[in-house]
Write a structure and sequence with these properties.
Number of strands: 14
Distance between the termini: 38 Å
Strand order of the largest sheet: 8-9-10-7-11-12-13-14
Number of domains: 2
CATH class of the largest domain: Alpha Beta
Radius of gyration: 24 Å
Shape: elongated
Length: 366
């Protein structure tokens, strides 16, 4: 099996602890990829404990040095968020295939600028959205699309927690805030639940609750459109009692999913008596008033995610296996740039509806 030679820009929490960890530690990826270059100005981060790096590995302190290394076939752009677009463009123009960390961008115009370069370069490009491969999400979407729940009226997605945050990912000018940090994970799933179209209506309320930065850390988003379910998304750092991750409301039943378990219940229309609206008062014995009621046989099903599959490592491995097929065979990848572009349209509108003053000057921060 051909091994794709990888260079990783950035050895922070993502570049080092996610991407490099996946390539160096996951057997399915070790046989498909070989990390031969990394770049980070903090040299202490160049080593990864308990792994034997490739004998070809070169460590750089400047990403531009890495982009001059023509041994590389795939560049992973794990730079800080506000550099994602520009460095991705630079890598494409240097002749590399590129995977970019999320968030890709804050504005659609930046995505369109990138699309132009992708077309001109003819190179492969994708955004790292490993949560698309989360089994809890995939099973929920499978049940929804099976039709057993009837017409889908509403979907709720919640990525909530409780805690304070003060790092650079709380600062607006660094393309940060929870909508751009955590948000791309549930937003990628929201786009899939909603369907193949942009929403016609977007409502968003954001707040700054437990953050020490100048960006939001609480988001309530509702999108809707004719022929699509209403989708309700929450991402909050001030939720002390997180509930279900996914809830689906259908005309024939519903679904809930949390942790490792998906449960759904439904009735089958063919089992039910035909009903129609009645203008006269409903009557029971002795012409006494009654409320609507019928015997309804409810079917209940449950699915439990295998323990090994309920980890970031599993989702990341499945993502990169899909990317490998895309690069080596030309097979369309599951996460398409158009899906990410729909996210950015929503993100841009959310920020338009919730302008916050910028109170932190990042100066010459890299």
């Amino acid at each position: 099996m051909k091994r794709i030679k990888v260079g990783i820009i950035g050895q922070g929490r993502s570049g080092r602890n996610i991407h490099r960890h996946l390539f160096e530690c996951m057997p399915a990826l070790k046989e498909r990829y070989e990390v031969i270059a990394i770049a980070d100005p903090i040299t202490e981060r160049h080593a990864l404990a308990d792994i034997t790096p490739s004998p070809e590995l070169k460590c750089y302190t400047d990403y531009k040095q890495l982009l001059a290394d023509k041994r590389i076939e795939l560049v992973v752009n794990a730079s800080r968020s506000h550099k994602h677009i520009d460095i991705s463009i630079e890598a494409l123009q240097a002749g590399f295939n590129v995977i970019c960390e999320k968030p890709l961008a804050r504005q659609v115009a930046d995505v369109e600028r990138l699309e132009k370069v992708i077309k001109e370069s003819g190179k492969f490009f994708a955004v790292f959205q490993q949560s698309r491969f989360r089994p809890l999400f995939r099973k929920s979407l499978e049940v929804m699309n099976s039709g057993v729940l009837g017409r889908i009226v509403m979907v709720k997605v919640a990525y909530n927690c409780f805690g304070r945050r003060w790092d650079w990912q709380t600062i607006q000018d660094m393309c940060a805030g929870e909508l751009l940090n955590t948000g791309p994970h549930p937003l990628d799933q929201v786009v899939q639940f909603f369907g193949n179209a942009d929403p016609e209506q977007i409502f968003c309320k954001m707040d700054r609750a437990n953050t020490f930065g100048d960006a939001e850390d609480h988001i309530k988003l509702i999108i809707s459109g004719k022929g699509h379910p209403t989708v309700d998304m929450e991402v909050s750092r001030c939720c002390a009692f997180p509930g279900n991750t996914y809830e689906i409301y259908g005309t024939n039943g519903g679904l809930k999913a949390c942790g490792t378990e998906v449960s759904w219940k439904y009735f089958r229309p063919q089992d039910m008596m035909e009903q129609h609206a009645i203008i006269k008062p409903l009557e029971g014995a002795g012409r006494m008033p009654v409320y609507c009621g019928e015997d309804m046989h409810i079917y209940e099903e449950k699915w439990t995610c295998p323990a090994y599959a309920n980890t970031f490592d599993c989702w990341g491995t499945d993502y990169y296996k899909d990317i490998y097929e895309g690069i080596t065979t030309g097979k369309p990848t599951e996460v398409q740039l158009e899906h990410v572009k729909r996210q950015i349209r929503i993100i841009e509108e959310c920020h338009k509806q919730n302008p916050f003053p910028k109170t932190i000057d990042i100066g010459d921060a890299i």
